[in-house]
Amino acid sequence: MENCWSVFGLFTAIKLLLIPSYRSTDFEVHRNWLAVTNSLPLEKWYFEKTSEWTLDYPPMFAWFEFFLSQFARFFDPNMLVLRNLKYASFNTILFQRLSVIVTDLVYVFAVKGFCDCYSGKKTDKDSPSNGSSLILAILLLGNFGLILVDHIHFQYNGFLFGVMLLSIVRIYQGRHMEAALWFTTLLNLKHIYLYIAPAYFVYLLRHYCFNSKKDGGVAWKSFSLQRVIHLGFIVVMVFGVSFGPFIAAGQIGQVLSRLFPFKRGLCHAYWAPNVWALYNMADKTLAIIGAKMGKISKDELQGASMTGGLVQEYSHTVLPSIPPVVTLICTVVAILPGLVHQWMYLKGPRGFVKCLTLCALGAYLFGWHVHEKAIIIVIIPLSLLALDGEKYGRIFLLMSTVGHFSLLPLIFTKAETPIKICMLVAYQGFAFISLNKYYNRKSQGFSLPLLNKLESLYTLGLVPLLLYTECVHRLIGLQQRLPFLPLMMTSVYCAIGVVYTSGLLYKTVLMEGRLVKGQKDLKQQ
Amino acid sequence: MDRALLPYLFVLISVIVVVRWSVSLNSYSGAGKAPMYGDYEAQRHWMEITYNLPVSQWYMNGTNNDLQYWGLDYPPLTAYHSWLCGVVANRVNSSWVELLKSHGMESYDHKLFMRYSVLVVDVLIYIPAAIAYVFNEVSADTQVKKLAEASVFLLYPGLILIDYGHFQYNCVSLGFALLAIYFLDKGRDLWGSIMFCFALNYKQMELYHAAPFFFYLLGSAFRSKKENWFFKLVKLGVVVICSFMLCWFPFIFDINQASQVLHRLFPFARGIFEDKVANFWCSISVAVKLKNFLDQQQLVFLCLGTTVVALLPSCLHLLVKPSTRTFKYALVNSSLTFFLFSFQVHEKSILIAALPVCTLLHYHPVTGLWFLHITTFSMLPLLQKDGLLLATIATMLLYHLATTQVYNCGTFLEKPSANGKNNIVLKTFFWLSMLGCAAIWIVSLTLRPPARYPDLWPVIISLYSCGHFLLFLCYFHWKQFTWTIAGNEQSAKNIKRTKQKQKKFN
């Protein structure tokens, strides 16, 4: 399996090329955290507020920044000074970019592990060079979203997804304790992964703490308290290491208030393409119709459309506004079916990945203040499933195309436009070609591989949408009057695709019933 | 080409554009360095001149056209291209090409415009030429393998770095030259000569390739069985003269104009070499300062004489035994000879020798890669000055990995290559040479040169590269003289044998 490493090498070269590209404020955020963790004692980390970008990741990520800052001093000690706001010397940029590229090694290590256990299963049936692990390696290592968000926008998602994938690989390998360890670590690195915690909880409880009966049902009497204690010990230990010092110092309230700021609005600046984007759109449409019919005053409409774009708070005109509690309830309701299904029809590690995807998807569709970047948490597990049957291949293709497309507005600078578009075309093109080849399907008529006519039409519709948002809108001079229209169009168009594909995924996963006899999963003990 | 291949091509071109455009995010030559700036300003200045002045004043010194400030010194096609860009630039933002006032024009948007202007001609000329060439050249392999080879062809770092980083339009002249090679491969000699005339009229440096074209066409006309040789030569002559007339149309009616253009193209008044070049004269200047014994004219004749003598063997061989394969070896030999021995050589001119090596990479993956790495390495001082160090490292890494993966020639342990042998001695030398490059590179980055020799590192780099180039010149001569069609059949048999072995192995 030297495949993974050469693929990684090729992508590393591309990442190196992207070092001088545009950086978002996240670059300054992380630089500030380097300074905070390096120059202040532990007790002050979560109180420091010289910069507006205060530390709002869990303690282990702070320790990660502390670790990085030990090397940063060799590049440019000035980046570690708290007062140097927006400091970006060449060496600072080089160091921060390189730190992302190097910590991606965790990710490639995990991907290699996954490819190994994936191809290990297939060898008895096909020839060793059926290309499955190469396809997986390219789909995972070259993930468009990760490269865009990490190496242009600037974040450390590659490293974080490396840890996540590592815990998934451990589950594939049946090393449940290690899986729990890695996942708890992940939670303490970035708490957004709380959304997928239920999948781990249910899987480990059901699979590790209970045995199955012969028909696949739960053997209630087999409950092992010892194993629960083992798992509990791991979780408590990791959380203790991470949060312990802050609890001891009586700062836990402050830390938590930094981690969970409930001051933000329902939707992020640019609406992530989820259910709420459609809800907002419906509200807007109704408001305009209402105004036409004279039911709503002009002022009210004006107010609604003025705040429609980049302002954080969006006040609904016609439909009721959504409080956080409603989003929480919706999320729970969206996640439950997957969990119940996993509990009832245990399907081994693959079933677990499906459940995890549903959790991430539920949170993405209904969550409070969702970022468009969160779609990567859905796409990465889906790419693990891409070779598990045509249905999943189709879902992966749809979701990745739409999801990645919805990331394009993240990079809005003119110089980077060709890169983001060509990279998207290359990645999705490769995905379509390789999956088409893998499933050996002849494409029929004008539809794209694996997709039906309607889905193909929708997917190809992204091309005119892109053309409009990237140039036509500016050329016809609507930039001044309706500056947020392209964003809204992208968001709503993608939301339709995301919601449709989610329905497809729910349907596919939930329709899979109990194990048919003789089709037992190999990994099940 | 198959229609089913279109999606693959789409992906390939996207990847290629990503790499090219990422390089273009970097700085360019002479950024912010008033008063003369660099090649970027030169190209912009030509747009300004050609857009604002009538054709008759393009090459002439005048109040509005100070030839001392980046005067136009490329052939007419470059001038027309500049004019076209100037028209577009004027449409987008007229201050970019305002006469005299726009000198030293630099802005975010203008940089984007310039970068796009390179991308457009690259996508229109060089990229299709490379894909067409690779698909025509290699017959035995699968389509996917050809695509992979085409992507390797297009990832050669030197050209990307100079065109998208430093800033030039080499992809146009090299693209035309490549198209010419492609047409000659297909036996379409007339089209080939037209394309080569375009290349030559875009950049006079294409003269480095001219001798092999001439001798190949002459030789194949004599050996042509279909046509009378005289008739064929007349056809070729007419086509060449017509293309030249077409390119020079505004200048041919006035002898003053024509001679002025020629004078601008071949400035013998300049020095024997510029900066530190990895060529023969620059290298021996470390030991012997030729300028002290010879005057300018004698120097020119010395260069000319050496170049012609060095050119003769490979050209005469080509005349006697013209084949598409020996033609490519002769192209390498001719361009390398010019680079090493001719007058007024720039370090960027090595790209002209790199192109035919790229076309031969399929047959010589290890030596080809070695040569191409050295070419990029030889331009290091220039690239470093332009702030392209990171991009150089990244593109070289990318190219190395892509080549070794595609041609399966990276490690010592792989299956036999296309030649049917796994040459361990060659690879040992390859890696030793690469280690040498890396060592020089690291030392030049970390240590300051002694005060007495401020140019120590560039000189060492050019000496090291020049040594390699001289050896490569011998190597490619040897390849040209020993290559026979029979030998080729032999190696084809070898390929078959190894393939059968591999089948058994599987």
Automatic annotation (TrEMBL), chain A:
The lineage of its organism: Eukaryota, Metazoa, Spiralia, Lophotrochozoa, Annelida. It is found in: Endoplasmic reticulum membrane. It comes from Owenia fusiformis. PANTHER family: DOLICHYL GLYCOSYLTRANSFERASE, DOLICHYL PYROPHOSPHATE GLC1MAN9GLCNAC2 ALPHA-1,3-GLUCOSYLTRANSFERASE-RELATED. GO terms for molecular function: dolichyl pyrophosphate Glc1Man9GlcNAc2 alpha-1,3-glucosyltransferase activity. This is Alpha-1,3-glucosyltransferase. The keyword Membrane applies. It is a multi-pass membrane protein. One of its GO terms (cellular component) is endoplasmic reticulum membrane.
From TrEMBL, chain B:
Pathway: Protein modification; protein glycosylation. Pfam families: Alg6_Alg8 (PF03155). It is an enzyme of class 2 (transferase). It is found in: Endoplasmic reticulum membrane. One of its GO terms (cellular component) is endoplasmic reticulum membrane. The chain crosses the membrane at residues 6-23, 113-135, 167-184, 229-253, 299-320, 350-372, 387-403, 424-444, 456-476. Keywords: Endoplasmic reticulum, Glycosyltransferase, Membrane, Transferase, Transmembrane, Transmembrane helix. Its EC number is 2.4.1.-. It is a multi-pass membrane protein. The keyword rRNA processing does not apply. GO terms for molecular function: dolichyl pyrophosphate Man9GlcNAc2 alpha-1,3-glucosyltransferase activity. Belongs to the ALG6/ALG8 glucosyltransferase family. This is Alpha-1,3-glucosyltransferase. It comes from Owenia fusiformis (Polychaete worm).
